Amino acid sequence: MASASSKDRNLLAVIGDEDSITGLLLAGIGHINEQQKKNFLVVDSKTQVSAIESAFQEFTSRPDVAVLLINQHIAEKIRPTVDKYQQAFPALLEIPSKDHPYDPSKDSVLKRVQKMSAE
Q: PANTHER family, per this entry (predicted)?
């Protein structure tokens, strides 16, 4: 896994549905690096789970990504991978989408925090 100091991490990466990605791109998060790699993946009904997994692995190993946002309903498709992710950087945040409200009981970070506070 590539390592970088926190000061080198200056990007948000997003795995989300078209509405979420569009809103975030309009807010200015879009970036394409020298290798023509984007910092976002638009997921629709035709997107293969393997493509979502691959994007997750890529974004979590990039040294320039500070935060990875993923729509919670998309995170559900790769839940074992999301639940295994334990790194501090990039921070992983599950977000709601227009058609899928946020469910705290499914959030991997919140579950980990609850487990730690119970110990």
A: V-TYPE PROTON ATPASE SUBUNIT F (PTHR13861:SF2), VACUOLAR ATP SYNTHASE SUBUNIT F (PTHR13861)
